[in-house]
């Protein structure tokens, strides 16, 4: 009888040990991740915020279960960002997402301890956010939408679409630090295209800049992506349509709104990648040793309706290269 009871107890103990998760796993399963999110606009208004939430969801994070998201957002008022970044840091989240290259510096100024994951359309090295792309070296890492030779490739594709083009204006914000205007200039010299600089630092700069393009008989406007140019997208496209000027941009939504073409990364894909960075940091990864990711997949969007309005016939070979053709 005693041997039977002993055998039963041993069997029960073995089954308990097999069924129970290891202590570390059990602790991880019960932990609620606290993720701070610093935004320029607002959670409902920012499509990139939705992409980040989807990325976390794909990785198994559920708001109210194993995730608490702490939002601070400027509602389009950049002067509020320093105080909002400090507020977010005071809440002591496990990690902070800074959504935008113009947002990340405020998070970085507010803390050099809490890990920060950024999604930036500018060059984070030139902006002083990281020491290098391969070895960030501090408490910030993430993704950048900037990739070498992107600007030159856009000009080459424009030349394919319109072989006779010789005058191109570049609409860019000098305060948004990236190499695209410089690279477009260099590509223009190789392709025999005169490149005109249209500098915009505020919404009030757009009308005179666009008028300068028309005065110089620009045949196309290449838009360097930044929050400022994106916010003013519609006025740029409406002006270009009236003046019959082609618009080339870095992101697909421009083409969907009427630009001739775009060449660059899928923003939703890139922002979803930030969720992976957050996940790795929550699991113990050191941001100083996590390389900043650049785009590896680039999309070409072409709007054939706009091409027709401009009197252009896009070659079948170029259309075959397109990720999407908008008709």
Automatic annotation (TrEMBL):
What keywords does the record list, in alphabetical order? Signal
**Which superkingdom, per the lineage?**
Bacteria
Q: Which residues form the signal peptide?
A: 1-26
Task: Respond yes or no to whether keyword Signal is given for this record.
Answer: yes
Say if the entry is tagged with keyword Coiled coil: no
Family annotation (SUPFAM superfamilies): Periplasmic binding protein-like I (SSF53822)
Q: Which residues form a coiled coil?
A: none
What Pfam families does UniProt report for this protein, alphabetically? ABC_sub_bind (PF04392)
What InterPro entries does the entry give? ABC_transpt-TYRBP-like, Peripla_BP_I
- For this entry, the protein name equals ABC transporter substrate-binding protein
Annotated source species: Variovorax humicola
């Amino acid at each position: 009888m005693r041997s039977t009871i002993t055998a039963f107890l041993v069997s029960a103990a073995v089954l308990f040990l097999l069924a129970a998760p290891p202590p570390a796993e059990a602790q991880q399963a019960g932990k609620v991740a606290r993720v701070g999110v610093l935004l320029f606009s607002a959670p409902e208004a920012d499509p990139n915020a939705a992409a980040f939430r989807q990325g976390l969801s794909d990785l198994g994070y559920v708001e109210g279960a194993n995730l608490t998201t702490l939002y601070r957002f400027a509602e389009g008022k950049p002067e509020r960002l320093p105080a909002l970044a400090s507020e977010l840091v005071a809440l002591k989240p496990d990690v902070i997402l800074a959504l935008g290259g113009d947002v990340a510096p405020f998070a970085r100024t507010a803390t050099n301890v809490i890990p920060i994951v950024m999604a930036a359309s500018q060059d984070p090295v030139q902006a002083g956010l990281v020491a290098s792309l391969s070895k960030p070296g501090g408490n910030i890492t993430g993704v950048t939408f900037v990739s070498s030779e992107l600007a030159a490739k856009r000009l080459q594709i424009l030349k394919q679409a319109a072989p006779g083009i010789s005058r191109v204006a570049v609409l860019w914000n000098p305060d948004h630090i990236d190499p695209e205007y410089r690279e477009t200039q260099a590509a223009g010299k190789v392709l025999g295209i005169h490149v005109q600089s249209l500098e915009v630092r505020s919404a009030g700069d757009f009308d005179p800049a666009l008028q300068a393009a028309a005065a110089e008989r620009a045949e196309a406007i290449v838009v360097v992506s930044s929050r400022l140019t994106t916010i003013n997208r519609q006025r740029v496209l409406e002006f270009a349509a009236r003046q019959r000027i082609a618009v080339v941009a870095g992101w697909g939504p421009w083409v969907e709104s009427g630009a001739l073409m775009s060449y660059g990364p899928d923003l939703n894909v890139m922002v979803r990648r930030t969720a992976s960075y957050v996940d790795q940091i929550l699991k113990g990864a050191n941001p100083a040793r996590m390389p900043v990711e650049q785009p590896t997949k680039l999309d070409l969007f072409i709007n054939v309706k706009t091409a027709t309005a401009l009197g252009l016939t896009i070659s079948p070979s170029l259309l075959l290269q397109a990720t999407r053709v908008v008709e």
